């Protein structure tokens, strides 16, 4: 029997991970959530539930039991929240991750994966077409409140390395490209979901920026495969990009692809750019992620962007 402990099971990636694990034989899944009622019913009825806030160290360290695997997914995901509540954003990421590392020590977890983000890379210029590997980091504007998210993700990654070196925690870091596909919730308001909603409603896609920021994308089923692969095959205290390199393009290019291919040319791309960053979008980036390290480990993504949108829309 393999025993898994998952945080963030009410979120998109966490819920899809749990769904996959529940379809495996000889598997027991336990989730840590603040609001069990937000769990999908099929998850709520088939997992062990620990009701706790991951930032509450006392509550987390009361958890008992031996777990083979721990996957830490929980983190704020809405850009508007990161801007309106930057302190809470940073605390949730840093304190929550440290508490999971402490729990990994206490429960002698065999393997842990921490879900980081491609936003940790900051400002890196890839206009020459090069791909960025895991060891390279660019500048982050520490005076920008939106940096609460990527700065905290960097600190959380650092704690992973510290706990590996001091306590031997077998933790791997997964830097995920933006992930979507089947199972995206109807209330998701991220850019890719706005594009899909425009297709559903047969309305034009409205960009609130020039759309020059480079996007890196990965299908949700590919991402789940990659995370579970890292649990078994990844090297501890190592960082891995989980991305499909063929899905790298600017926001503008993705919008046009959706309008032309998914919307079958019946909608178009328009612009409505405010003077301020009221939507909380991340700073413009030219980042192009490299997937070479995961390929060397024996894993590669398979699903292209057009199919990701077809899956999202249920076509």
CATH architectural label: 3-Layer(aba) Sandwich
Please write the CATH class name.
Answer: Alpha Beta
Compute the CA-based radius of gyration: 19 Å
Write down the overall mean pLDDT: 93
Number of strands: 12
Q: First CA to last CA: what distance?
A: 36 Å
Helix content: 25-40%
| Strand order, sheet with most strands | 3-2-1-4-5-6-10
Structural class label: alpha/beta
For the report, how would you describe the main beta sheet?
7 strands, parallel
Distinct helical segment count: 11
Based on CA inertia axes, which overall geometry fits? Answer: globular
CATH fold descriptor? Rossmann fold
Which parts are unreliable, with pLDDT below 50 for 5 consecutive residues or more?
none
The domain count comes to 1
Secondary-structure element pattern, one letter each: EHEHEHEHHEHEEHEEHEEHEHH
Proportion of β residues? Answer: 15-25%
CATH superfamily: NAD(P)-binding Rossmann-like Domain
Report on the architecture of this protein.
- The protein is of the alpha/beta class.
- It has a single domain, classed as 3-Layer(aba) Sandwich (Rossmann fold).
- Helix content is 37%, strand content 18%.
- It has 11 helices and 12 strands.
- The chain has helices at residues 12-22, 41-44, 57-60, 79-84, 86-106, 148-167, 191-201, 220-233, 251-262, 292-297, 305-313; strands spanning 2-7, 27-33, 48-51, 69-72, 111-117, 171-176, 178-180, 205-207, 214-219, 239-242, 248-250, 269-271.
- A 7-stranded parallel beta sheet has the order 3-2-1-4-5-6-10, with helices on both faces.
- Strand 5 (111-117), helix 6 (148-167) and strand 6 (171-176) form a beta-alpha-beta unit.
- Helix 7 (191-201) packs parallel to helix 9 (251-262).
- The longest helix is centred in the first third of the chain and has 21 residues, at 86-106.
- The model has no long low-confidence stretch (mean pLDDT 93).
């Amino acid at each position: 029997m393999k025993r898994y402990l998952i945080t963030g099971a009410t979120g998109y990636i966490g819920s899809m991970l749990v769904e996959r694990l529940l379809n495996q034989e000889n598997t027991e899944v336990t989730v840590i959530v603040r609001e069990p009622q937000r769990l999908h019913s099929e998850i709520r009825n088939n997992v062990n539930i620990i009701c706790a806030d991951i930032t509450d160290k006392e509550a987390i360290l009361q958890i008992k039991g031996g777990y083979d695997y721990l996957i830490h997914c929980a983190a704020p995901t809405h850009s508007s929240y990161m801007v309106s509540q930057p302190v809470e954003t940073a605390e949730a990421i840093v304190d929550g991750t440290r508490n999971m590392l402490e729990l990994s020590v206490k429960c002698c977890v065999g393997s842990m994966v921490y879900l980081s983000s491609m936003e940790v890379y900051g400002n890196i210029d890839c206009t020459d077409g090069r791909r960025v590997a895991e060891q390279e980091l660019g500048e982050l504007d520490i005076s920008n409140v939106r940096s609460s998210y990527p700065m905290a993700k960097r600190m959380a990654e650092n704690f992973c390395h510290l706990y590996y070196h001091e306590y031997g925690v077998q933790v791997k870091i997964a830097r995920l490209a933006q992930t979507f596909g089947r199972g995206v919730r109807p209330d998701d308001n991220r850019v890719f979901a706005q594009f899909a909603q425009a297709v559903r409603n047969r309305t034009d896609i409205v960009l609130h920026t020039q759309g020059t920021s480079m996007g890196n994308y990965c299908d949700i089923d590919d991402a789940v495969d990659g995370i579970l692969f890292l649990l078994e095959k990844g090297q501890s205290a190592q960082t891995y990009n989980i991305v499909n390199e063929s899905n790298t393009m600017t926001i503008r290019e993705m919008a046009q692809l959706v309008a032309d291919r998914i919307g079958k040319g019946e909608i178009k791309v328009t612009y409505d750019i405010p003077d301020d960053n009221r939507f909380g979008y991340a700073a413009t980036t030219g980042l192009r992620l490299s997937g070479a390290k995961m390929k060397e480990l024996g894993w590669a993504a398979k699903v292209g962007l057009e199919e990701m949108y077809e899956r999202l829309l249920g076509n």
